[in-house]
Design goal:
- The structure is a single chain.
- This protein has 98 residues and is mostly helical.
- It contains 3 helices and no strands.
- Helix 1 packs across helix 2 (41-60), helix 1 (2-34) packs antiparallel against helix 3 and helix 2 (41-60) crosses helix 3.
Length: 98
C-alpha cells in the first residue's frame, strides 16, 4: 500500500519534471528565432538547463538548409521517454491506475 503510494508520487513527479523540461526546450527553440540578450539570467538558465540534451542532438542531427531540427527531435524524444517511464511507474503501482 505504501509502496503503491510512493510509486504514484514518483510517477507524478517524473511526469511534472519531464513536462517542465519539455517547455524549457520549446522556449529555447523559440528564443533562437528572436536572438535575445545572452546575458539575461532567464535566457542563461534556459540555455544551461537544456544544453546537456541539445548539444548531443545537434551533433547527431545536422542542420537542413540552415534550420536546426534538433529541438523537434529532442521534444519528441522527451515525450516518448516520459510516456514510457510514467506508464511503467503507474503499472508498477498497480493495475488500472494509469
Amino acid at each position: 500500500m505504501v509502496t503503491n503510494s510512493l510509486l504514484l508520487a514518483l510517477a507524478t513527479v517524473v511526469d511534472v519534471l519531464f513536462t517542465i523540461f519539455f517547455y524549457l526546450v520549446l522556449v529555447r527553440a523559440l528564443l533562437s528565432w528572436v536572438n535575445p540578450d545572452p546575458y539575461n539570467p532567464v535566457v542563461r538558465f534556459i540555455v544551461r538547463a537544456t544544453e546537456p540534451v541539445m548539444a548531443p542532438a545537434r551533433r547527431i542531427i545536422p542542420p537542413i538548409s540552415g534550420f536546426d531540427l534538433s529541438p523537434i527531435v529532442v521534444l519528441l524524444l522527451i515525450q516518448v521517454v516520459k510516456n514510457l517511464l510514467v506508464n511503467l511507474l503507474y503499472n508498477m503501482a498497480g493495475p488500472g491506475l494509469s
